[in-house]
Amino acid sequence: MKEYITLKWLIKKEFLSFKRNTALFYSYLLYILGVSFICYIGFLGSGGIHPRTWNTLFWISSLFGTMHICYRSFSSSEKGLFYYYYTITSPEAYLLSKIVYGFVVSFITSICSYLAFSLFLGNPVQNQFLYLGAIALGTGCLSIIFTLTTAIADKSSEKSAMVPILSFPTSLPVLILSVKLAKNALDGIALNESIDEIVLLGALFLIIFTLSILLYPFIWRS
Amino acid sequence: MKVSTALKITCILLLVYVYAAGFLIEVPRRAILNETIRNLFFHVPMWFTMITLQAISLYYSIRFLRKKKVEDDIKSYNHVTVSIFFGLLGFVTGMFWAKFTWGEWVVNDPKIIGSFIALLIYLPFLLLRKFIPEKEQRAVISAVYNIFAFTMGFILIFVIPRLTDSLHPGNGGNPGLNMYDVDNTLRMVFYPAVIGWILLGRWITKLKIGVDYLIAKKNEELD
Q1: Which of A149, B68, B160, B198 can bridge A166 by disulfide, Cβ–Cβ 3.0-4.6 Å?
Q2: What is the ipTM metric for this complex?
Q3: Least CB-CB distance to B133: which of A153, A157, A222?
Q4: Do the chains contact at B160 and A173, CB–CB below 8 Å?
Q5: Looking at chain B, which residue has its C-alpha nearest residue A157?
Q6: Number of residue pairs across A and B with CB atoms under 8 Å?
Q7: Contact A222/B141, CB-based, under 8 Å?
Q8: Following DSSP, what letter does each residue of A51-109 receive, concatenated?
Q9: pLDDT tens digit sequence for A14-51
Q10: Is B172 helix (H, G, I), strand (E, B) or coil?
């Protein structure tokens, strides 16, 4: 019960600091606008964009967006604060609050990115509901992976270089599955055709989640 | 005779047998494969060795996190480096095989892509160790990353390719190795080849571990 209360407060603290720093969220929005506008300029005059290209571009933009959001989770300015957390919370609650924060913010950002892409490049998606499901599952898995790898990279001397090379290859199973699921939604294929991908993504989510909860206490202590 | 000496002798005998028999025995004629089927004794065991060494390193990583002994860290690190070496060898032999059967050096195939990504997952592991100056922290962090990397690599090689059709046997519409009527002549060389290469991998790793023990002893980290 005590764990649950600390977790609640930690999550509240994450969102409170996010709310106080609204400029941060605007920076994500501006990033999305920039990316989708670059894609628009890039495909200008080429007579429309192929749905699969649209899908790939969207997932690459949300991959980088999620990376930026989770990168902030373990910022070096919190070094002093960290010792304080060390005395009052458990590592699981601390990691969980970071994951929840990363998931919610990156999901919102991905939705905004989805709207921006629809605005600039047209919306070729036929099954909107399934596509949103794919975004939710995909960003859920990605935010856990990025949070864990950022925690790992935070201990090294070259954090900014290590985060992408640690997390991009490890996030590929998730990306392969979610891009495929999103492609099914794009083509309007019936839901029972993509049950395989949904079940596998859900299983992957559980695996990554338990793994990060099991492994993080070791990073925390070192 | 000690067990390790017996294993070394077995390894040498098996590999001599594999090289002799692998190039000399009568192989079954297959439509596209022809004589390249002999690569079965050299390409496939590389991946078996890689996976085995990674599994052993996973075991030592878990043991390190439980008992915090420097020896376990050295062992797990060296198993990973040798497994990367075998992975690269498997990639090169596979490229030659692909060139002479499927017509290209690199074929668009989920299994090849998966194993390439598995290498991409393990190479940052070496970099990560370079970038963490403090020794104890380095050991813990690399053990954590090793466990995470093995899980993701396992999913990439064994789960994802099952979803799509592959040129490799055993995936999608292709038959597995057993149904591929690998007849008994091939099997008589294939299984010894797998065991021989795995033993060789272990042997190389043990030599590297020995060197690292000496260095650690000189720096007075081991007792």
Answers
A1: A149
A2: 0.86
A3: A157
A4: yes
A5: B131
A6: 75
A7: yes
A8: HHHHHHHHHHHHHHHHHHHHHGGG-GGGHHHHHHHHHHS-HHHHHHHHHHHHHHHHHHH
A9: 888 888 888 888 999 999 999 999 988 888 877 778 88
A10: coil
